[in-house]
Amino acid sequence: MGRPREFDEAVVLDAAVQCFWKRGYEATSIRDLISGTGLTGASLYNAFGDKDSLYRRALDHYVAGSIGERIRRCEAMEPRSAIEAFFREILARSLKDEECKGCMLVNAALDVAPEDAGLRAAVADELRRIEGFFRSCIKKGQASGSITPSRSAENLAQHFLGVLMGVRVLARVRPERALLEGVVDIAMTVLD
C-alpha cells in the first residue's frame, strides 16, 4: 500500500494551471512546475506522471472549474439570457485579465493541439460541448419565441462558438472594452 498523498490535489492542479496558463506548455519547465506547485520533482512525477500528463490534468481541471461551471450556471437561465450571461462572464474575465493570459483552452488549441492528436481531440470535444450549450439554448429560445427561427440552431451555435474564440483571442492582444463589447453586441443581434 502506497503512502497517502500529503497535498491537496486540487490546490496543486490550480498551481499547475497558473504555470501553464501564464507561460504556455512549451515555455513551462519542470522546474517552473516544482516551484509553482511546491512539490518535489519526485512527488510531481509520482502523482501526475510526466509534463504532458500534468498538462492534460491541469487543462481538464481548468475546463471543469471555468467553462464547465459557467455552462452549469447559465443552463439554469432562460435561453437568451443564458447566452448573454455566458458572454458577459467572458467579457468580465477578459477585461480583468491583466496578464492577458486569455483562455487556457483556446491557448491549448493554438499552442499544443496542432502537434498532439490526443490533445487536439480533447480540445475539439470541449469546443463541441460549448457549441452544444449554445445550440441547446437557441433551440429552447426558438421554441419559446425569444430567439428567431429564421436561422438554424446549428448555424447560430457555430456562429457563437466562432465569436467566443474570436473574443478570447482578441482579448490577449487588444483587451479593449469597446472592441470586445462591440463584437459581442453585434453577435447577439443574430438572435433577433
Automatic annotation (TrEMBL):
Superkingdom in the source lineage: Bacteria
Record domain HTH tetR-type: where: 6-66
SUPFAM superfamilies: Homeodomain-like (SSF46689), Tetracyclin repressor-like, C-terminal domain (SSF48498)
Membrane spanning residue stretches: none
Pfam families named in the record: TetR_C_13, TetR_N
Molecular function per GO: DNA binding
Regions recorded as binding DNA: 29-48
UniProtKB keywords: DNA-binding, Transcription, Transcription regulation
Name of the molecule in the record: TetR family transcriptional regulator
Organism per entry: Bosea vaviloviae
